[in-house]
């Protein structure tokens, strides 16, 4: 029975939260499989707006069991802040499950994130400062703290000692910061143990049993394809696998169980933080997209960099993720433009590239080759079927579909839950 993966196709903020919410009343589990509270998903339900960071967007759907799986890094303080804020707004958060194998973000990860960024100077990544990179580095270095370690004080103390051993030398001698006390970290973490106990589970087992029983599980990716640590614009990426393969390793559900891969893609492109972005605009068109699309980060409030749609990136996302369906979002933002450029290939120092170049320097030097499509001026926010869209908007979607390597099954025409045109059912 259906296991569905939902990922971002570009550099994040495509509207994954809204797409998850759209499926919320028809799925039994929503699983976050990568990243942490670097994500920012805005979901608009009626006149209520929710900003989720660490929790899967499915927590807003009453029937859903939200799961934080093993591939996630969990800042426990943020976890309880977010749970309390949602509870106070009447959201039932009691069903949340967290993998015993998920790693923990602590204060020293946040500190290291900030100091390493500062030391990188001009070469900085522009991270969200949430400790994501250092927590994943500890995981790969095998000095991470996992959820299950919190339930044995002796083990926890040994592991925190192990983790801080080198870091304190680094903080003191290289970064000129104070050393971090093992006791402080351990006491802080132990303070959460009783509240965590009922949530922590073998989520891989739970999810496989749910699939065996014919239930529907949606795996919601944080970040996006071009921020994936293997397939994105390294080193200007996040530290996890945000592509569909990450749903398997990040949850303990095997690749052959996935039935469908949905990628969410914006009708134009945005990026937060540093790194290459071929279609980036520095003129009034870029400003238009930023203000019409309200492109300011949900997590850090930073203005997002904006640019036109990049078809080679969409094709790349289709290939890397095995996309079966795209959800095209924010088509309404393009209303009012006379002509809409779409990048169909790149020029790299005189050579044409039809696909995303594997060499990072080439991608840095890529200038877009555009095709211009006619725009429309009619308000499309009320469209609920494809034929409600003006001809030029329909043609824009069909042209993108043609270039992007998979069908465009749903089209977002506004931030609200019902502002969507469904062409092919997603479940
Ligand atoms: P995520 O990180 O992929 O979940 O995306 P974000 O929530 O960070 O950013 C997407 C923003 O676009 C949010 O503010 C959404 O409410 C909004 N949004 C999503 N779909 C649409 C759409 O079709 N039209 C418009 N105008 N806004 C949308
Ligand atoms: P959602 O899930 C957009 C970016 C940061 C930075 C880089 C590394 O809302 O789409 P990190 O803190 O992860 O080490 O930062 O990745 N980044 C995002 N950009 N949307 C996100 O999440 C992002 N999560 C991380 O801006 O460039
Ligand atoms: Mg976001």
Q: How would you portray this structure in words?
A:
By secondary structure, the chain is of the alpha/beta class. The protein folds into three domains: 161 residues, Adenylosuccinate Synthetase, subunit A, domain 1 (Adenylosuccinate Synthetase, Chain A, domain 1), CATH 3.40.440.10; 92 residues, Adenylosuccinate Synthetase, subunit A, domain 2, CATH 1.10.300.10; 158 residues, Alpha-Beta Complex (Adenylosuccinate Synthetase, Chain A, domain 3), CATH 3.90.170. Helices cover 32% and strands 21% of the residues. It is built from 13 helices and 20 strands. The strands form five sheets. A ten-stranded mixed β-sheet has the order 9-7-5-2-10-1-11-15-19-20, sandwiched between helices. Strand 19 and strand 20 form a beta hairpin. Helix 3 packs across helix 4 and helix 5 crosses helix 6. The chain is globular. The mean pLDDT is 97. The structure holds guanosine-5'-diphosphate (GDP), 6-O-phosphoryl inosine monophosphate and magnesium ion.
